[in-house]
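Retro notes, item 3 of 5
We never archived the inputs for the DGJ complex last cycle. Fixing that now. Sequence and ligand:
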Amino acid sequence: MSIHYHEEEAVFHLQASNTSYVIGITKQGYLAHYYWGRKIRGASWKRQLLLTNRSSFTPSTDLSQMELSLDTLPQEYPSYGSSDFRTPALEAQHGNGSSITELTYVSHRIIAGKPELEGLPAVYVESADEAQTLEITMRDAVTAVEVLLTYTVFESYNAITRSAKIINNGSEAVKLNRALSVSVDLPGDQYEMLQLSGAWARERYVHKRGLVPGMQMIESRRGSSSHVQNPFIALLENGSTEETGEVYGISLVYSGSFMAGVEVDPFHTARVFAGINAFDFEWRLEPGEQFQTPEAVLVHSHEGLGGMSRSYHDLYRTRLCRGAFRDEVRPILINNWEATYFNFTADKIEAIARAGQELGIELFVLDDGWFGKRDDDTTSLGDWFVDRNKLPRGLEDLVGRVKASGMQFGLWFEPEMISPDSELYREHPDWCLHVEGRRRTQARQQLILDLSRKDVQDHLVAVISDVLSSAPITYVKWDMNRNMTEIGSALLPAERQRETAHRYMLGLYEVLERITSAFPHILFESCSGGGGRFDPGMLYYMPQTWTSDNTDAVCRLKIQYGTSIVYPVSSMGSHVSAVPNHQVERVTSLDTRGNVALSGNFGYELDLTTFTPEEKELARKQIALYKEVRPLVQQGDFYRLLSPFEGNDTAWMFVSKNRSEAFIFYATVLQEPNAPLGKFRLQGLDPQRDYVLQGEAAEVEEQSVFGGDELMYAGLAKPQFHGDFSSRVYYFRTAK
Ligand code: DGJ
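Structure as it came back at the time:
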């Protein structure tokens, strides 16, 4: 890791563990992008900047260097108004009403470590020697508006983080219409753009499209990162695979409305960008005020998409997630949601918890319905006190009973919401997001608390803290079940109403910071109707997320595969649920439901008291196996082998960091008649070592010792299944 400034060339060379990123200052003072890619020792960097004289439609701002045009110069933080016709990173409206900003270099500094982003989640370091940071100040000479660009490179992680701070050093107020986190101009357009898109219950499906001239973009306008689009895109060099080729990833550490995309210009260069969605966004900066953008995390891989994913996994698992549970293996849980929905008693809960404990489960989670008068989803959000009709002896008594059965206790909240039918709403009808005189559109019969308000933030911290202090609770599921409409705040003036959505996010982050740091012994899992806010912003506060409300094992193949493109397996909740499945009514075997769920933070979400002795025996085996492979699954290296988006078979595997253990998952969706034989190749093993197959799979294979080279180069025979939705797991350990 290092950041060098080559003064004679006016070039910054940033080197992450495997990546170089190079920025130059042109003689006009523009900040030019020279290179982002595989690590290079050094070069005469000016050769990397290709310029040529073009027609009058490509104007130059310097008559003495006509080949330099802002319209073709690869730039680091482009702005609008002075001849760059491509999409800008910054669009500011000044006191005179104009939107022209022309940024030039002022100064820079290189510092050890990585400064925090005030009020925003971000990748962090534990000691200053883990990273170096470059800060470059640019200024618009006419208005004195400044932009501080921040770049961090890491010693042991193959990633570069970027963010921008806009500072109004002028004498008049400035309105930001767009302030993105990152913009990079790549020299060609021979890429596919990968995005993770979907909907509720089918989140983060992998989609790829070849770049075409013009704009290709994803965005969320929902006030949260959303089920529909994930704040991430990658550019895949044409012809690249899981293991080969150049891949550029951009992941945004933000949980609100965002935009990310690529614009291909007439000269076939690709401008890739990401940040807060400029749609319905505005931020007013009075003289002296600043605006900090969220952070973007850039990963370049020359080892295909898989290499990119593993870089994100390592960084996010250990330098984005925080807290006592970051490096701990996560508990196996049983959640009562799909077992009882709102209809439970203390006795029923205790019975499910006891049944779980007998199988080896470690944590019971009480889901929705324990508070206010909540017998269905129409009431009580905001009334965070126990429902004595359902739990007459209170929460403490129930927690005591569950703990007496040998289980930890976890609790569900949906803190950001307010039901119109609640004591809280009757007392504070102006505490929700709303616009005076307009309908308050409900979703799931609920409204959203206005977390941009300090009084609402304080109230939420107080009531949630009271519940968490009232009993020995060790886990919280933090749910959020709708998107924003009528986004307005009763406390903001008219000219700041379009700040509400981002102020909401800042308020939410503040609340999360206060609650998670006050209860460091609690494992927080975020949820938004499953994976509606599965983003790096949330992972900073809560190290795991409920991946999807869809618990069907077949649907989960795509959902978990897609999620793994960016997010570490330790961040994905995956549970065994009942059949017919409650979302799609599919019937799959307990074996396959278990095998799929083993590839995540494992748990069950059904009524264990109804299990037959055979089902109990199988669940006991699944739980015992998970306890063996858990460190490997949660902290090992993850390799995708066969994609559910490309065929009938899915396979992936986990390898321990020292390559002494591997756990492989293989599934076939539909049974083919007279099926062909075939092999699939493993990855990440040590070719010099022998691996011994453990457990029942060894009996099926009729052999137990395999060379690492054999498994990776020749492959393992695809299992021959009978029946649809079949799967197998293989656990290998190196021979002693
Ligand atoms: C949506 C969540 O994703 C579910 O797991 C469950 O907690 C329900 N909300 C409860 O209302």
